[in-house]
Request: fold
Amino acid sequence: MSEIEHPIQSTAKLFKALALSLLIALTVFVTIVLPAEFGVDLTGVGSMLGLNALRAEDANPEVISRPGEGDLLFRQDEIEILVPANDGLEYKFFLYTHSNLNYEWNSTSSLYFDMHGEPDGDTTGYFESYGAATVDEMSGSVTVPFAGSHGWYWRNDSGEDISISLKTLGNYDIIGLN
Amino acid sequence: MKHISSRLLLLLAASVFPGIAFGHGVDEGTQQFLMDNDGIAIVPFMYIGAKHMVTGYDHLLFLLGVIFFLYRARDVLIYVSFFTLGHSITLLAGVYLDIKVNAYLIDAIIGLSIIYKGFDNLGGFKRLLGYQPNTKFAVLIFGLFHGFGLATKLQEFEFAREGLLQNLIAFNVGVEIGQFFALIFIVLALSFWRRYSSYLQFSVATNITLMSGGLLLTFYQLSSYVTS
Reply:
């Protein structure tokens, strides 16, 4: 006998044990795991415990609109941006919700970029990333999900300055370097 | 109370262990390493393996169930070896031969293994089936599934084929080191608890908790599977 002496439980005890463990597991699952991991709150306990907040990434950020500013003119711009060695910077444009920013940029050598948008008036630091990679050219078009500042964070990890040539087209205002 | 030192050791263990045992899966640093790594990196892979086992609460819960009533060191070693054999086979084969299994389903089965052992500890099979299914065999078979669970976590990353075998073996060795390390804490805690009458009094409750844990894991993994 390699085990410590312990009783074989009666059938009744076994079924009670199974039932109890099932009850505990289901309760914890429905009240805690479903809200926290899947955003499904069947009992309301999830929101009561604030667990639904764990799924707040899915929630839309509060967007503050700028009334009475009028439509932004359709325009086309070209600019050279210098990203110094071992440095990073941001270059942004203001666009209204669902406006389109067409762009094309190339650089003297590969560098990391994160194209993203920040809602207008937001103070939480929230941003929506549209893409990130380490390349020396990129082009495309983004329809922005909210009004705010949209553009690029470029990071030069090399020991030499990198020059970026950026072309843009759309209805926007230039915010410029951040 | 026999030795003050063992109480202190247990207190230390109890405070350190939860800190280490956070999360499950592969963290960002490891992700980055696996993606960037080129060639043989024995010690890093050993460390990743060890960390994986120490934070692998589903594997540890099963082990807890397995050794719950074992009191001889020899028996602990024998049963753990069957588990090790099982998970090593599928870990090595799974990653090296690139066997694709669904991670959620495997993790759900690992949840089932925990339920199985908790139920077994209550004498459930002896009572309902009239016989005790060969425990060593069960541990080996479930070990195979645990190994696939370990493999799927590694397979999430396309990492270098160069030096894969050496790195994989290093990972496996690391898993065993981590398992050994975690087992020390578990065995210490059990030995400590067994000095008190509450151990047997609460053995049913403990195994109910084990079964709940296994059920919860199974529900969670199946839900993830269904929504993936």
User: Anything to note?
Assistant: DSSP finds two helices and seven strands in chain A.
